[in-house]
Amino acid sequence: MRTRLADIAAQAGVSEATVSRVLNSRPGVAEDTRQAVLTALDVLGYERPSRLRRRSAGLVGLMVPELDNPIFPAFAQVIERALAHHGYTPVLCTQTPGGVTEDDYVELLLERGVSGIVFVSGLHSDSAADTSRYMRLVDRGLPVVFVNGWADGIDAPFISSDEEVAVELAIGHLASLRHRRIGLAVGPERYVPTARKIAGFRRGLAETFGVGDADPWIERSLFSVEGGQAAGGALVDRGATAVVCGSDLMALGVIRAVRQRGLSVPEDVSVVGYDDSPLVAFTDPPLTTVRQAVPAMGAAAVRALLDEIGGGRAPRTELVYRPELVVRGSTGHARDGNGPAPAPVVLRMADAAPPAVSGAAPTAPSEV
Prior knowledge:
Layout: H1 2-12, H2 16-23, H3 31-44, E1 58-64, H4 71-85, E2 88-94, H5 102-111, E3 116-120, H6 132-139, E4 144-147, E5 158-161, H7 163-176, E6 182-186, H8 192-209, E7 218-220, H9 225-237, E8 242-245, H10 248-260, E9 270-275, E10 288-291, H11 294-309, E11 318-321, E12 324-326, E13 356-358
Helix pairs in contact: 1-2, 1-3, 4-11, 7-8, 9-10
């Protein structure tokens, strides 16, 4: 016990006697000092005595489509941490094929009296889905926030990554490496983020190379390693020397397809992912990717939800966060014979701009 008190006292910058008074709920300790001791307990991994545990301000549902793709656990961790910091208890709801659906989870959360729900890449990102399910939640006064996706007619905050700019950043990078035959491997186009990536790809090829028809260089598949492998194989067989992917998992599949053909990354084919998922910096080769602003987006989603819970009204616009190109080892200069480098162009995503805010549904639909 003496060792533990000493550790806590050192961490909090107070005396052991002060730590003892806090742990035993004795008077004579300033509130700031008390909070410092409690924070030290948390930092050192000690469990607070039951009488000192903060009561939950309420439950908040956190809906993610899966945990296989590392980007979703990354979002969940950021959002859960922010909610816990404000006293809310997050309830993580993860869907599995053939298992509990998003609608089933919502019913369970409503039965437990949740204060609000954050949807990450939920059915709101599927343009073919019925959005009346969300309108009913809004009509009953439940605060909801949506991350990555857009649906018209829902009176709620939306937080998104700029998918179009993400692809344009990748194309600009590959063009600087003298690539001209660039392919795009993405998921089904009915998903808003995918449609936006395709729109950015078409514009990027048109502005950079003057390509009028980008469709031959677009392959739609599944959001998985296997989906990336199928799409990447088709693009490489078609002559692509570089592939931009809808997710890091798809990028790993493209790399597999390249190697199955006896080729190398990046010597023969360059590959760019999307998300900057944990560990992709340690793949072979380390993956060049476009990083979603997960910490900023997660924090914005929680701020908007807490505003709604507190009786305020968060902005009913789509808050769009600019992604960041992270260059690693999976991209390199195109081999000789791939044609001359394109004439210098000024791409609209060249400078680092702050998050953009759009007041209506994006003009071009768009993905994972």
